[in-house]
Amino acid sequence: MQDNLNQLRERVNLFVEARDWAQFHSPKNLAMAMIVEAGEEVEHFQWVTEQESRNLNTEAKEKVGQELADTFVYLLRIAEVCGIDLIEATNKKIDLNAKKYPVEQCKGSNAKYTEYQK
Question: What does the CA dihedral 74, 79, 80, 82 come to, rounded to 10 degrees?
Fold first, then answer.
């Protein structure tokens, strides 16, 4: 997984470098672009039912996949520009969430941790 992520990160970096786009890739601009793409992702689910959202047809899956990829590319770029190791940051966040959401208190519940940690 780490190798694949590093290879993808490098491919995105080369793509950006070849086009001289790094000059536009400030953390602010990348964060805004990522949110725009996430908004485009949401459009695919806006007026469908819960069940329909779980059973996308082939065309819808392709479109959703493209928007996820756009969002992911911007996420990779933000991490790159800010010097953040996404794998390390994600592992730390999962460790933090494991403390905030212990299985015995939250299993099967969608309550925020503030509802049971008082």
Answer: 120
Q: How far apart are CA 16 and CA 10, in angstroms?
A: 10
Strand, coil or helix: what is 118? coil
Helices and strands of the chain, counted as H and E runs: 6, 0
Helix (H, G, I), strand (E, B) or coil at 1: coil
* pLDDT tens sequence across 29-61: 999 999 999 999 999 999 999 999 999 999 999
Q: Which domains does the chain have, with CATH numbers?
A: 2-84 (1.10.287.1080), 85-118 (no CATH)
Residue 60 contacts by C-beta under 8 Å, 6 or more apart in sequence? Answer: 44
SS3 (DSSP) at 88: helix
